[in-house]
Specification:
- By secondary structure, this protein is mainly alpha-helical.
- It contains 16 helices and 4 strands.
- A hairpin with a 6-residue loop joins strand 3 and strand 4 (about 255-260).
- The longest helix is centred in the first third of the chain and has 32 residues, at about 45-80.
- It is globular.
């Protein structure tokens, strides 16, 4: 497998150059249209807000360019640069047996990568987001979130990693099938436990108050045949001014969650339309399709890892002199993204198709004009650019660009509008 190293280098270099080229196109497109609001939005988005969206988008893209270079450097440094081998040698001096030795190596690598990436995270949160008025995260809350996340990673991720290492060492050549079964069980458990036990550690969830909006939502849920554990409002404003809404949980434990920032900006009819769109993903089977894809991809990924882990040249060609279960996991984690990146436009295309389908579902169960109005407000308040580069958006965007999406909704609203009565002939 000596071909893996040069192929990996080519993937990293080509992928990084492609990402940098796409980001340059995005900056050029947004800059070129900065001084004029697109005609369909001229009456609803002031030029000042359009300027803010352009500047915010450009700032984020430029920061992402640094992230591209940093991610490539980390991947090469850990593999061909000998980073994994160096950390492994340090832990060998401690003399721990497996799987504790492997767990220590993996933990050290993850912490080292986190420390290297931390400056970008801090800059994004406390400089970039703050500059445009979105950040509400305090240093104390940031540290508290970090501590909780670290504790959860140790309590949940630790046993998972140790279990995987044990299976790789003791379950024979087909260890990856047992690992896949365990991964599926853990995924289902976490999906069930997240809304009830984990998310409340970070945010406060309050049931939606009685009133007109709750009545509208309950009526919509009944029409769509959707049963949930309840509708909740989360205090997203503690960390950010961005608005959002989402479903969480599985089975009878499904929850509908609205950010308080979203509730403050949208009218009741607009919230109903947004919820109808989200319900469309559920009723049209998009959630099940994504789950099925995850099952298939995880199976294929673990099968590939099982094959690679059994080949000594997989390690030596990527900077690790001695084969080990923990080295196999780390190499797989930091090498495969270089190749998976090229599948990004396929995933984005699939996702955009789901968004259009969910919009059509919302048109049948709510009001197309209200959904369009809600989306315009979200584009404006979240400072989302209305003029992305066509190639960039086709490659990355999981949602259709604003002009395309709003145009379809407004056209549908016009077609469904009642005809204007004509005067009777004299």
């Amino acid at each position: 497998m000596d071909w893996i190293a040069p192929l990996f280098v080519v993937a990293v270099v080509v992928g990084s150059l492609l990402r940098l080229w796409l980001s340059a196109r995005q900056v050029a497109a947004v800059t070129a249209h900065r001084e004029q609001v697109p005609e369909p939005f001229a009456d609803s988005i002031p030029l000042a807000d359009h300027h803010k969206a352009a500047d915010y988008t450009i700032a984020k893209v430029r920061l992402s360019r640094l992230a591209v270079v940093l991610e490539a450097a980390i991947a090469v440094a850990l593999t061909l640069g000998g980073g994994i081998a160096f950390i492994d040698a340090l832990w060998a001096r401690v003399g721990l047996p497996q799987p504790w030795h492997g767990g220590g190596v993996i933990l050290t690598v993850l912490c080292a990568v986190w420390l290297v990436e931390l400056p970008l995270t801090l800059w994004s949160t406390f400089v970039l987001e703050a500059r445009f008025g979105f950040n509400r995260m305090t240093p104390g809350l940031f540290v508290a979130d970090l501590a909780k996340s670290a504790l959860l990673a140790v309590l949940i991720g630790g046993p998972v990693v140790l279990g995987a290492l044990y299976l790789m060492q003791h379950a024979g050549t087909l260890w990856w099938i047992w690992a896949w079964c365990g991964w599926l069980a853990l995924t289902l458990l976490m999906t069930w436990a997240w809304p009830a036990f984990i998310a409340p550690l970070f945010n406060r969830f309050v049931p939606l108050e009685e009133g007109e909006l709750k009545g509208r939502i309950e009526s919509l849920l009944e029409r769509c045949g959707f049963r949930s554990q309840g509708v909740f409002v989360v205090d997203g404003s503690r960390r950010s001014a961005h608005g959002n809404a989402y479903f969480t949980g599985i089975g009878r434990h499904k929850r509908i969650v609205f950010f308080d920032t979203l509730m403050a900006r949208l009218a009741h009819t607009e919230i109903e339309a947004v919820l109808a769109h989200e319900l469309g993903h559920f009723r049209l089977g998009h959630v099940r399709l994504r789950l099925a894809l995850m099952v298939v991809v995880s199976f294929m990924g673990l099968a590939l890892l099982g094959w690679l882990a059994a080949a000594p040249s997989f390690y030596t060609s990527l900077g690790v002199p001695h084969a080990s279960t923990h080295a196999a996991l780390l190499l797989f984690v930091y090498v495969t993204p270089a190749f998976m990146f090229f599948l990004t436009p396929l995933g984005a295309l699939w996702s955009r198709g789901h968004e259009f389908a969910a919009d059509e579902f919302a048109m049948r169960n709510a009001n197309a004009d209200e959904l369009a109005s809600a989306l315009v407000k979200l584009y404006r308040d979240n400072a989302s650019t209305l003029t992305p580069d066509r190639v960039y958006s086709r490659f990355y965007y999981s949602h259709p660009p604003a002009l395309e999406r709003i145009g379809r909704l407004r056209q549908a609203g016009a077609l469904n509008a009642p005809a204007t009565p004509r005067a009777a002939p004299v």
